[in-house]
Model the fold of this input.
Amino acid sequence: MLHLDSCTGLKTFEISCPYCSAPLTAGSRLKWEGMLTWSECRCASCRKEFDYALPVAHAARFPVYRSPGQKVESAAELQWLVQAWNNSEASPLSLEYQGQASSKILRVFNCLDPCYGHALLRLLQVFPWLQHPEYDVLVLAPARLQWFIPESVKQRLLVHGPMKALAGEIQGLSGWMDAHLASHPHWQWDTLPLNFDYERLSLEPFLGAEYQIPKAEAATLVIHWRKDRFWMQSRAGEALAWCYYKYRWSWLQSWLEAQQLRNFKNLVRKVRQQVPGLSVYLVGMGKPKMLHWAIDERAESPDAETEKQWCRRYAQAGLVVGIHGSHMLLPSLLSQGIVELLPDWKINHWGEDVLFLKKDLEKRTRCRMVPTRSSTQRVTAHVLALLKWWPLWYDEKKPGKAHLGA
Ligand SMILES: [Zn+2]
Done:
């Protein structure tokens, strides 16, 4: 059993030996290999020697360990993490350090993860610690997400390369960390729990006044485009979208994208019938087109400014519509509401990609999930319910009057 107070930053932690269940203390010698950081352990009871992963993020909920020369094993059901690590070759990715050392206590946040959403969730937990001047913060993060690291983070180690390469060991990382921490006698690592208390979250260091004073415009609809999950209205279409995603049937992509674009175009046409003057933006990863029904701000390789521009769109939007996935984390946090299209095969992951502050109880009524196999009429009804009718029912300042439309 693990005994560790959340976010205390202890260098050691109590575990049960995975072989004989005897209690022991781990954490004296660490190997920073990537998304998993290993602690060398030796059980005094059964005399087994093994590495035990620091209880950080998913490894805190689902402990993982390995014996010398053996594959990683898990004491719980978390096969994606174990399989990803075991199936990965050690990658010589390039490391880039930015920052300068100081004499303050260093809090180390390992935000490396091959999944964009997991890495983003780890990074969000850095924000509250920026309010504590007694600490310096060192963030280990994928370079792909460096745009999301606040400027006030004094030290950052960026790992360049494809996100999927972060599933396994990163060559050179552990040696770099040993050398760096040797010059910081006082440092602590953080647990980055999966169920983070978002009440403590302040995005001010990231979005500044734009987030504090959101200029939400109810008559603005943002559509978040995803290249590998699709809104398909027929059973056959959804089956093809699933095959495309699972088996990488790339020859289907242009057909799926055309179907989805047509669905969104029809949605916008129907919503505009009830909400004249509706502004529509299309964001997300994809090749932008000239569209007469939306301003297409998609990008195939978004840079930092593009990512932040998308965040400003979410903060201004009355509603964001998108397909289930980690790219909906920031829209759900920043926008007034979302309509999320959820594939049947993702029902088990309902709500994992939705963030809002606990104090924002209103948000609960403004986050809706509908099946991806939904008609234009059904999605239009949900969009109108939130864009047009939600203020009538919930806005006490304007009783009896809808904000928009005829
Ligand atoms: Zn033991």
Q: What stands out?
A: Residues 253-274 form the longest helix (22 residues). Residues 199 and 357 are 6 Å apart (CA to CA). The chain has three domains: 13-86, 94-200, 209-394. The chain has eleven helices and 18 strands.
